[in-house]
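Table S5 (text form). Sequence records supplied for joint modeling of the two-component complex.
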Amino acid sequence: MKIIRLIKEMSNFSCLSRQKGKTIGFIPTMGALHAGHLSLIRCARKENDLVVVSIFVNPSQFGPKEDFKKYPRNLKKDADLCKNEGVDVIFYPLVTGIYPAGFKTYVEVKELSDMLCAKSRPGHFKGVATVVTKLFNIVLPDTAYFGQKDAQQAVIIKRVVMDLNLAVRIKVMPIIREKDGLAMSSRNAYLDKKERKSAAVLYMGLKKAEGLIKKGAVNPQYIIRRMKNIIEKERAVKIDYISIVDAEDLRPLKRIKGKILLALAVRIGKVRLIDNLIING
Amino acid sequence: MKIIRLIKEMSNFSCLSRQKGKTIGFIPTMGALHAGHLSLIRCARKENDLVVVSIFVNPSQFGPKEDFKKYPRNLKKDADLCKNEGVDVIFYPLVTGIYPAGFKTYVEVKELSDMLCAKSRPGHFKGVATVVTKLFNIVLPDTAYFGQKDAQQAVIIKRVVMDLNLAVRIKVMPIIREKDGLAMSSRNAYLDKKERKSAAVLYMGLKKAEGLIKKGAVNPQYIIRRMKNIIEKERAVKIDYISIVDAEDLRPLKRIKGKILLALAVRIGKVRLIDNLIING
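The corresponding structure-token record, covering 562 residues in total, follows.
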């Protein structure tokens, strides 16, 4: 397994590999790899000749008061996990490589970047769309793998790929959960023991809503109210939002119909967590 | 010579050509081709195995009160000119192909898109940066050719290519002028006989400034004043701006030094014209 730091070296590797007819599967990450990332890597490993994992804690997707500085970083551990999964290349660029002096260009997705998580994290999805576009142009993947955990991100990336005519297939893989249902996330590491226990309530809320919808509930406001009741029982958990939207274009829904995305964000102490469920209503 | 309308067909052509090791030279245009465009095509013809010219009057770079509808369109004439120059493909996409329903993604270049021409044409360079990024991703050129006439556009495109890690070389070719010095432009066709005669004053103003700088003038405000005096002698010509900026990053200059860009825009009747000169001060 190679660890590549220079953009030029990465793009040369990718160009040469593509010229030789090798397919490239790509998993862009911020490191702190967990079972969710590993499920993406395994899928990429099965489907491609070469697997590239990028590890880049992207400053442009963090707000000024967010956790950029304290975001967990452990290259040694991440590299061991990647090696175990048969990854060919870790692309581990410098911040000054991705954002050199004079950098001025951003990729923005209108509407989709103003709702759900964007309300608490203004500018976040502009940072994501920009860095992912850059990484795609450097790594030249045939297929890139994303987790359904970041549902809004997945919808936005698919939109960018379509709109900018990028030649990448996007594959979104199911959320991997802990035994009690908590969605795997690098930020779970921030939770203390008590908070970690409270966090299980997110999935309980989502499953409650799923149950209601399966029994025929069609009013999003009613469903959201029932979820709130469950989640607010945990005093430590502060709801940021609970939304029921169209799973393809994130359009808010007045009535449950078709493929819907049930998405929520909460704060537990200083930690912001998100989770979601896709349901065929 | 092929005329391709479908994005899928264009990108298949480009992929296959690149796989065969052919180099592609690309000239993105809005049609209404003139000697300026032809100079780009000739250069591309010399330097590449294949030459692709796109003809697309891009709605997203026109303001609501601008000339999108009346912009000159003449595919037959453009196609004849291209054929004569040995162009291999004209890419002539539909507006609904480039901007399908649900389109939401834009490429924006901060700062560079807020100055000079952008003040009179808000959103213009966002439209340009977006469509050029899309066209590059579809046509996959090794080298793309732009005219120095659109100086700000050239600087912005170079910035986009660097910032988004696009694998395209940008070549900017000199302005081609009429006998009286007027820079070739598709919009010159809008001018009536009298206006056309007045338009020569733009180049006179630029040459005056060049003369002053060669004689040692270093104060941009003084030079701009002298240019104004010349240009305003033509009553029909209304100055939009005259600016002296750094040629690489368009930074306004307080003193003439290094490679400078002398840029101006005027209105003659309803027609907006731009011109510029690069001078080593």
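Note: Chain B has a mean pLDDT of 97.
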